[in-house]
Each structure stands twice: as structure tokens, then as C-alpha cells.
Amino acid sequence: MASTAPSQNNHAFDLRAPSLFLDPHPLLHRMRAEAPVYFSPHLDSWVLTSYQDVCAALRDPRLSVVEEVKRMEALPASDQLALGALRRTFLAWGDRGNPERHALFLKLLKRHFTPHHVEAQRPRIQEILGRLLAAATRRGEMDVVNDIAHPLAMTVVAGVTGVPEEEVDLYLRCSNYISQLLEMGDRDQLFLCQRGMIELSDFLRPIVERRRRERGADLLGAFMEADPDGVHFSDDHIVAQCIMFLVVGYHTTANQLCNGLQILFDHPDARARLTADPALLPNAFDEMMRYHGAVASVRRMATVDLAIRGQQIRAGETIVLALCAANRDPSAFPDPDRLDITREEASRQVGFTIGPYSCMGQALARLEAQVFFRTLLGRFPRLRPRDAAPDWMVFRPLGRELRTLRVLFD
């Protein structure tokens, strides 16, 4: 629905400028100073840029996390009907549209994703990475995005979920379609997204049916256990959760690994320090996420009329929480545009978000990052980018991710 938000003629910030994704921070600093709660006609959304407001909104029960459904509801009735499968599957992801069921879903996951269970993945992550690096070095060329980070993250999450790891190419192809739902999805994107959803659902359904008879110590097995809270998942519901993990659980991690390596290429002093002292990796990873996180923003939808800093927001309106702006707010992070891998407050970054809908697999993502950076920095001390400029592509709104990251190594 079109917003009738109050005019803000004193502030005109173009959030659709073609080159904005390359460096949005000068504009975001201005917005935070002049209009921290700003209605963008380009996005038909409110935009929050302060750390305090973003954190409060992430915890606010009045804001729905299934804002993406609005994109479907704005389409003609025939398109809405045609996109029924996409809507059903998306709404089932983690039962996000039902706070009580989502809380039970998280409780189930926490019983499975214990610190011990996550740490037990370390040898497997190391083995997968070693295999991918060996193949690249045999070829004599390496694209870290497509040869290493993306297949690594997808293979790891496939194994944790309990689906066949040898189908990584299928998962990657479908996930790249489905992830467009997380953008400001237009009609064509939504239909591509559904195409990926249906292909992946058709592949996973017989696997789930078979696993009813052959339980395992993975997420599929956890979803099928007799649950003490009385939560029972149908096969279709389990398929939806598998798709969620294969999309969300892979995409953010893979992009953060690539972003982090590019950050180290751009900051050789930080790279040298991290290479000399790998114990700095946990804090350095938080600082990389703060400096350039894989998720630039998330969207919420107001379920009731509410006010933020005196701005009246109506029920049904979209609010873009600019995580990238919150992570560069000088009130939370002094000298925010400077990378400092020893920054004391780095762990306050909101790249994984916070609150009841924060990233469910962040412990696994952190472990993958430790293995990835420790291995690459130790094994390839002269690793360097092959191309003169990073191959960035836009991920609306405000985000960017690397299409390729070709490197030279000795």
C-alpha cells in the first residue's frame, strides 16, 4: 500500500542512487544527523539509521518480521494466486509469523545447536575447505566467491541440515533465486523466487519422507523427534525449514567470508596483525561485520500505529532497519569509519541482528569464519586480488556483495 507519510521537504536523500551501494555511509551519516527516522519515497518505507533506534526496533513486538508478504499482496489477485506456494513456504520459515510458535521453534533448535554440537563441526569444515582449496590450487586459479566461500558455506549447512551434500550445485542455484525475496522483491523477482522454492521443494520432499524411516543426528532428525512441547511438523513444514536453512543459513555466511577477505585486502596492516596473531580472529570477525556486514538492512512492518522520535508510522507501513548505519553510529562505535580489529565494542555490532529473530546459526557462522581465515591467511601469505577493483553488485536496499573475488597465490 502507498504510504501517506508526512512530507519531509527539508530532507531529500536519494536511496536509489545508482552508485550508492558502493559507499552508502556518507549519506547514512547525514541521515542519522538530520533525519534519523526518515520516510523514503524511493523505497516507500521508513528508514532508521541510529544504533539506538535499530536495536529497539529489532526487539519491538509491534513490528512484524514477515514484511516481504506485502510485495505479494500489492500484486493483482491473479498473481497472488499464482504465488501461493511461495507465500505458504515463506510464512512457514521458523514459524516467524507466529511469535509463540517461533519461540517453540527456537527452543527446539537450541536443544540441537549446543556449543558442543557446533564445535564438533570444526574438523568437517576444515576438511571441506581443504578439499575446495586443493581443487583450486590444482587448477592454478581461484575465485574465492564461487570456488571457495559459497560452496563451503552451502556444503556445511547441507550437512548440518541432513540433506545430500553432493547436490550443492542444485542448492546454490535455487538459493540464488530464493534470496531475491530478501531484496526489495519486484514481480519478476518473486516469480523467480517461487521457481527456486518449487524446484527445491520437489527435490527435498522424498528425502524428508525417507528420513521419517531413517532418523539421523541432524536438523531433519530433530524436526521429526517427539517434542516435549508438543510441536509436530508435517513433511511440508519440514521441507520449508530445510529451504530456510539452505537459503538464509548459507547466504549470509558465504558473503561475510568474502566481505571479510576483501576488507583484509583493503587493510594490509590489519591483515598482517591478524596473520601474526590468529587469536584475534573472534573479535576481528565482529569488527568485519560491523565495518561491512553481509546484511545491510532488514525490513519490518508496523502492525499498529506507532511513533518513533515523533514520527507517526501507520499500521501496514514498512520500516527499513539500516544495520549498516547502526554499525557505523559514532554514539555506539567511536571513529566508526575506521577498521580496528581490536575494537573493544566490536561485539555490539548488529550484523546478526538481535532479539527474538536474530540469526539462529551465528555460532556456526563464527566457527566457519575462524577456520576460513586461519587457513587462508596461514596457507597463502601472499594471497592478493587479481582484479584492480572489487567486483561488487548491488543488493537492495543499501547492500552490496561480491560477484567474484579472483585471487593470485603462490
From TrEMBL:
Q: What keywords are annotated for this sequence in UniProt?
A: Heme, Iron, Metal-binding, Monooxygenase, Oxidoreductase
SUPFAM superfamilies tied to this protein: Cytochrome P450
Q: Which GO terms describe its molecular function?
A: heme binding; iron ion binding; monooxygenase activity; oxidoreductase activity, acting on paired donors, with incorporation or reduction of molecular oxygen
Question: Record's Pfam families?
Answer: p450
Q: Which residues form a coiled coil?
A: none
Q: What is this protein called?
A: Cytochrome P450
Q: What protein family is recorded?
A: Belongs to the cytochrome P450 family.
The protein's matches in InterPro entries, at most eight in alphabetical order, are given as: Cyt_P450 (IPR001128), Cyt_P450_B (IPR002397), Cyt_P450_sf (IPR036396)
Taxonomically, the superkingdom here is Bacteria
